[in-house]
Amino acid sequence: MKANAAGFKQLSAQIEDSLNQVMIGKGPVIEQLLIALAAGGHVLIEDVPGIGKTTLVSSLAKSLSLTFKRIQFTPDLMPSDVTGFNLFNRKTNEFEFQPGAVMSQMVLADEINRTSPKTQSALLEVMQEGQVTVDGVTYRLPQPFMVLATQNPIEHLGTYPLPEAQLDRFMLKINLGYPNLDEEVQILRLYDEVDPLDRLRPVAGAQEVIWMREQARMVHCSDSVRYYIASLTAATRQHPAVKLGASPRASRMLMQAAKARALLRGRAFVRPDDVQMIASSVFSHRITMRPESRLKNIRAEDVVREVLERTPVPES
Q: What does the alpha-carbon distance between residue 173 and residue 112 come to, in Å, rounded to a whole number?
């Protein structure tokens, strides 16, 4: 069955237009957010304070009529606050499950690196399996489900670095970057009187998002492109500057993301440039550099760029 590229592009354009009412000059960032939404992946948004990380997620939540919860990650946050817990009911003499904040279709994990590794690990099953297990009982999360986490890479006091297992569950890592001068003037004008978030109205709902994900799965990916994706992933593991390269999960997520990007561009098949344009966002947070490489200021993004330059590109 062939993906409906035209219908997908029309729906994604409506969501993009809604986000553009709030986010000025963030077209590439919004595209990556839509890619993750359609591909069924989670997103880590990393940048300095005041750039608009939380505003971006709030804009997406208001543009989609999905249930939304924001979890402010702090050092005293407990795993049960995230997943839920059982509470004894004296009237029925039974334990009743009290849902945690993740029991929502869209979850904002704000400043995720400010909580302890024990609480961070509460998201592992949630992000991979789409479920939580409390006292041996498993509860499915509402669908569609998506985690969007934010963190500040500059401030280290009172923070806990995300472990590799946690990072590997994020499909994409996005950096917003500072606006240019003209964009900042537009932002000042936009927020001069009324918060633009208050004006946003939903343009799609749960069924539309599920439909987008179904369409993305139907996008054709040739064997040559699959081989190209696997070759790129393998090359990150063999690079001399890298201690730990991208995982097989990264290959799978790169293919899913490339399929979604193809649909955003109006195609029902993946091309190598779809893979190339999204590879850094999929790979960079999964690559662990050697200590000597960090001393030489060699970044994971530099490794991905070099891998893309050296890996032969298929014709189709």
A: 13
